[in-house]
Amino acid sequence: MKPWLLNILACPIDKHHPLEAYIFSWETPEKETNDIVADSGKPKKELEEKYTILRKQLSDGTISPPSIEAIKDLTGFNKIITLQTKVTTLLSAKLESKEDLDTLYSYLNILEVREGLLVCPECSRWYPIGRSVESIPELMPDELREPEKELEWLGKWKGVVPSKVLETGKPFKLE
After folding, report:
1. pLDDT tens across 8-60, in order?
2. How far is residue 86 from each of residues 43, 80, 102, 126, measured CA to CA in Å?
3. Which end of the chain is more exposed for a tag (fewer CB within 10 A), N or C?
4. Are 114 and 23 spatial neighbours (Cβ–Cβ below 8 Å)?
5. With a threshold of 0.70, does the pTM exceed it?
6. In the sheet that 126-129 helps form, which strands lie side by side, from edge to edge?
7. Sign of the dihedral through C-alpha 139, 145, 151, 152
8. Among candidates 57, 87, 159, 171, which has minimal Cα distance to 123?
């Protein structure tokens, strides 16, 4: 799952947006994050189109700063945490430089979440990212969820899952 997707995801039960996102592992290894914001050698026209689209998304609200700020990186990757901090700062500023736009674009569209957890702060429901298919968020209604498999997955990440999910999360919690 790309972080950009959090701009459009909402809880399927109560439609709340933004969801809190807890990242347990990234598809992109930390050692490769230095190259993420580098110009990838794309033709100038393609880069200008990317900047135009990104500026439009920022101005029309497609990119939701609260949804990006709701991402909690629990991996401990210093480079990604630094990148996320920079992106959060950039979202509250007027982006002018191509370097700033590259940083924002790279964080939202190039990094890939391998496993994590989405939590609705309104109804306390949690949804796994990457439980059955790597990097895919599973926003299913309660009646279609698989309690045994999801609780097994939740137990795998028990050490980093927020205590509120373990204690009061819906539709089920670890006993």
Report:
1. 999 999 999 999 999 999 987 655 665 555 555 555 667 678 888 888 888 88
2. 26, 10, 12, 27
3. C
4. no
5. yes
6. 71-73, 20-26, 113-119, 126-129
7. negative
8. 171
Q: Spell out the domain ranges in the chain.
A: 13-28+114-175, 31-111
160-172 pLDDT per residue, tens: 999 999 999 999 9
The predicted model gives 70-88 an average pLDDT of 90
Taking the CB of residue 143, how many other CB atoms lie within 10 A of it? 6
Q: What are 10's two structure tokens?
A: 């909402």
Strands (E), the chain: 20-26, 71-73, 113-119, 126-129
Residue the block writes with tokens 């736009």: 101
Angle at 155 between CA 126 and CA 132, to 5 degrees: 65
List, for residues 141-161, the tens digit of each pLDDT value.
999 999 999 999 999 999 999
